[in-house]
Structures are given as structure tokens and as C-alpha cells.
Design a protein that fits this description.
9% helix, 2 helices, 47% strand, 150 residues
Length: 150
């Protein structure tokens, strides 16, 4: 069981909606995201490395993977984020679109895992949205006597 800290955590931050361009710029800064779809085994979410071009998220996988069998030709969601836990800040970008097989994709990520990742998939982006959590200013320190007033 988690014991409450004697010191309060950072104050809550403020959410800011990102522009489409900011979302695309942030997508280019990370090598790994998560793709989600609803298929034969229910809802699946897996981490993947990826590459982006305007309007496209490119993936590579094996032809026999769950991703290849289940997500191709379906609507998917793709998310990338960065979280600064100590500061209670960060950002998240969500892409929605249709995943499809591509023959000789123009944009291809370099696989991070061994094995023949010969199947190119791409998410044709229908929408992109994102939010940034701006950390609030730190709370001023309080002395022990600050709670007692005359």
C-alpha cells in the first residue's frame, strides 16, 4: 500500500492543445510509439518503432505477426508521448487512421529487433491531435510554523 508523502507533490499543471504541425514535429522526435486496434483477439496495443512522413506513419513487421494479421486493413490508433514524471509535465500525440500493407514503402523505419521485418505497413493518417501538460510553478516552501497563525 502506498503511504502518502508528508510533502505535497508538484501543483497540477495546465493542458495545452497542440497544433497539427506541433504534433508532426513531436512525432519525429521519438523512435517508439504504440499502435492499437480491435481485432480477432479483442483490443491490442503494442509498442513499435516507426518513421513518419507528412500524412503517414510507417511501420515494418514480419508477415506472420499479430500486427500484420490483425491490424492491416483496419482503423487503428497510434500514440507517442513523453512524460516528465518529477515535473508533472510532458506531451502526448494521438494519430488515427487506416493501416494498410504497402509494397516498397518510400519511408521505412530501421527495425530494433532481430528477424526479417520485410512487411511494410503504413497508417494513412485521418486525424492527428495532441496535448502538452505544462508544469505549474513550484509551490513555495513552508516552514513548520506556517500553519499556526495568531
Amino acid at each position: 500500500m502506498h503511504q502518502p508523502d508528508s510533502q505535497p507533490g508538484p501543483p497540477p499543471g495546465r493542458l495545452v492543445v497542440l497544433t497539427d504541425q506541433e504534433c508532426w514535429d513531436l512525432l519525429r522526435t521519438r523512435p517508439v510509439g504504440r499502435i492499437a486496434w480491435s481485432g480477432a483477439q479483442g483490443v491490442s496495443v503494442i509498442p513499435v518503432n516507426y518513421a513518419v512522413a507528412e500524412g503517414v506513419v510507417a511501420l515494418r513487421t514480419t508477415p506472420y505477426s499479430l500486427l500484420a494479421r490483425d491490424a492491416a486493413d483496419r482503423e487503428v490508433a497510434f500514440e507517442v508521448d513523453d512524460v516528465a514524471i518529477g515535473a508533472h509535465g510532458g506531451w502526448s500525440v494521438l494519430v488515427r487512421g487506416r493501416c494498410r500493407r504497402v509494397h516498397r514503402a518510400a519511408v521505412r523505419p530501421e527495425p530494433w529487433v532481430t528477424g526479417a521485418r520485410v512487411l511494410d505497413l503504413q497508417v494513412d493518417v485521418a486525424s492527428v491531435s495532441g496535448r502538452r501538460l505544462l508544469a505549474a510553478a513550484p509551490r513555495p516552501p513552508q516552514s513548520e510554523g506556517a500553519f499556526f497563525t495568531a
